[in-house]
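Hey,
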Amino acid sequence: MATQRIDVTKTGDVSVVRFRDRKILDETAIQELGAELFALVEIDNRKTILLDFEGVEFLSSAALGKLITFDRKVKTSKGRLKMCGIAPGILEVFQVTKLNKVFDIRPDAAEALAAF
């Protein structure tokens, strides 16, 4: 199996996902990341997920595409997805692309967890 791209912990009913990569750019890494995220919903049947971007410095547009697909999978399975800890530079990309309207983005994990 390839390198694990995420770490998953549980806080109550919420699966908290933290990214191991500081820069999510490489196509192979993005495919692996997508497979790991999708497995949370499709295999582990997790419904309440928080993506914590603390420490992530850069996301490629392909990575954004994976996040959009992941959001759809979560919603299709009647789950809830929130994001937090997004660096200002990445948050700006979310705002320019209007993805901040698609995703529920909170400043930090404590606020995101409280919002579930």
